[in-house]
Design goal:
This protein is an alpha+beta fold and about 550 residues long. Helix content is about 60%, strand content about 5%. It has helices at about 5-15, 20-25, 30-35, 50-60, 60-70, 80-85, 95-110, 110-115, 150-175, 175-180, 180-195, 200-210, 245-250, 255-275, 310-325, 330-340, 350-360, 375-385, 395-410, 420-435, 435-455, 455-490, 495-515, 525-545, and strands at about 120, 125, 130-135, 140-150, 220, 235, 240-245, 280, 285-290, 300, 305-310. The strands form three sheets. Strands 1, 2, 3, 4 and 6 form a five-stranded antiparallel β-sheet that branches. It has a four-stranded mixed β-sheet with strand order 5-10-9-7. A two-stranded antiparallel ribbon has the order 8-11. The longest helix is centred in the C-terminal third of the chain and has 33 residues, at about 455-490. It starts with a helix and ends with a helix.
Length: about 550
């Protein structure tokens, strides 16, 4: 399916499930509200939250992943929406078990009864990309068998093709889209989601996470059975724990919820800063709790397909920003953004500091336990737009994971003080990396090289000024060359208008075609709608390819 027609399917889905009613609630401008179908069509009988969840399921894996992220943010979204979206975690309709068995046998080149002593035909869980069955090996070990859904890769490619088209179009017409690096973000997401389709990578990630926490009480990762693992099939040790979302069951076991919430924060910072290898898909469907000792609960992590890593520069930047926020050092935050090039070169650092101060100071008037990092990020994003602040694609996974952790922690303990839990950890990490002992250790390790460079030091100092002047001249020449390339690459105004007309034709055509969902329209009028919709698509297609 070509991206253009796939876009029509998505727009028709929006109308079919009447998601326009949600847009109506958000639309503030009267002219926008006038264009929405809610003004002309009957009021839906089912709730908006239910229709949103069904629409996401209908659209497929890429959209289901997005819904999973939203389901963890109870502090940002209404409860009815979160409860419905939470069903996307492990309640996606399964595919037939005979198909799963056929894929397992083909991938492992053996019959199912030769591979397993027992195989449970009823899936334990069914997610957007794969489903899981219980089984027993011939040595008596209880395991779970994860198998990739059939034809899921083709569907993901179609979804991503459309998302790329939208990202390119938005970056061509919107400065905000350029600042968000939409194409880079989509590229990163493409790499991430296709990594999820290779279960050998998940097996490696799980083994590494298990090794990292082998001596820790914070987190447990299941054993990987490598002999039974391929690109399409993964066999893991079966863990027995309580889903983190089952708060009532956790309470019935007498689980220390406050300790569990604090340990969640500690686990996150340990992964990010000590191990530099963090689980980046920590939604409730992937996290279980070991309640063998309810007063000393620990986490069990599954589905390690998406893992993140940072450079030492990113780690240092994050640590300094977090500590500056703790210490209410708004000047330091502004300087860090300027040094990292995250705000425009022409931005006024002092003015940016004032914006940060205005944003942060009201937060500290309330208890730290009530400060939402999610709200802080959203507000920072909005207020920093005037300084051309850019979103860094390399930190997208980390930001998502931190938001998930905060959402899960507040679900366990509404009074969780995320900041006080994290501050001692960050201070210790900074001291270990940049304290006196760390400096002396680095110096001793590099002493031979430093001593070897000492004879060249006078010459380097004498020629430093000439080198700087040469570098500045080269930078100025490169800047002029880039400016000329940008001028020559600017699309003509006529092309921009054509793209705008295309977008209107696409939307109009999809909405007109979608009239077929409503049988209360007269047949003649429906035919007219269909003809007009097809005509809109043809016109849009011709304009899009016109140069």
């Amino acid at each position: 399916m070509r991206p253009l027609w796939h876009g029509m399917r998505i727009l028709v889905t929006i109308v079919r499930f009447r998601l326009d009613t949600i847009l109506l609630e958000l639309a503030q401008d009267h002219w926008v509200r006038w264009f929405l179908l809610s003004w002309y069509l009957p009021k839906p009988k089912r709730s908006s939250a239910l229709r949103l969840r069904e629409a996401i399921e209908h659209l497929g894996p890429v959209f289901i992943k997005f819904g999973q992220i939203l389901s963890t943010r109870r502090d940002l979204f209404p409860t009815d929406y979160v409860n419905e979206l939470a069903k996307l975690q492990d309640q996606v309709p399964p595919f037939p078990t005979p198909v799963a068995i056929e894929r397992i046998e083909k991938s492992l080149t053996q019959r199912i009864d030769a591979l397993f002593k027992n195989f449970n035909f009823e899936p334990i869980a069914s997610a957007s990309l794969a489903q899981v069955h219980g089984a027993t090996l011939h040595d008596g070990s209880e395991v779970v068998v994860k198998v990739i859904r059939p034809d899921v890769a083709d569907r993901i490619k179609r979804d991503l093709a459309l998302i790329f088209q939208v990202a390119r179009f938005l970056q061509a017409i919107s400065q905000d889209a350029k600042r968000l690096h939409l194409i880079d973000v989509v590229n990163d997401y493409e790499t991430t989601i296709f990594n999820e389709l290779d279960l050998t990578k998940e097996a490696h990630n799980t083994s590494r996470l298990r090794y990292n926490f082998a001596e820790s009480e914070l987190l447990y990762a299941p054993r990987v059975y490598s002999d039974f693992t391929t690109n399409d099939v993964l066999v893991l040790e079966r863990i027995h724990g309580v889903p983190i979302s089952a708060t009532t069951e956790l309470a019935e076991h007498g689980t220390d919820m406050k300790k569990l919430a604090v340990r969640g924060v500690e686990t996150f910072f340990t992964q990010v800063f000590d191990h530099n290898f963090f689980h980046a898909d920590m939604h409730p469907g992937n996290i279980f709790i070991n309640v063998d000792d309810p007063t000393n609960p620990s986490y069990i992590a599954v589905d390690c397909a998406i893992m993140g890593q940072l450079t030492i520069e990113d780690q240092t930047y994050l640590a300094r920003n977090i500590l500056a926020f703790f210490n209410q050092d708004f000047k330091e935050i502004a300087q860090l953004h300027a040094e990292s090039g995250w705000i425009g070169a022409d931005a006024d650092p002092q003015a940016f500091e004032e914006v940060i101060r205005e944003l942060c100071e009201p937060l500290f008037l309330q208890p730290l336990s009530q400060i939402s990092f999610g709200h802080f990020l959203l507000n920072l994003f909005v207020t920093a737009r005037q300084f051309n602040m850019e979103v860094q694609p390399q930190l997208v996974l980390l930001q998502k994971t931190l938001l998930n952790i905060e959402g899960l922690g507040r679900e366990l303990d509404p009074d969780l003080d995320l900041w006080s839990t994290a501050k001692p950890f960050m201070e210790r990490w900074m001291k270990q990396r940049f304290g006196v002992e760390a400096t002396l250790k680095a110096f001793s390790e590099n002493a031979p090289k430093l001593l070897g460079e000492l004879p060249r030091l006078p010459h380097l100092l004498l020629t430093a000024n000439d080198r700087l002047e040469t570098a500045e001249r080269q930078l100025r020449m490169q800047a002029r060359h880039i400016e000329m390339l940008q001028v020559n690459a600017q699309p003509p105004t006529r092309t921009k208008w054509c793209k705008t007309v295309v977008s209107l034709c696409v939307i109009g055509g999809a909405l007109l075609l979608s009239a077929g969902w409503f049988d209360w329209l007269p047949p003649i009028r429906m035919d007219a709608y269909v003809i007009a919709g097809i005509a809109s698509w043809i016109v849009g297609w011709l304009l899009w390819h016109r140069r």
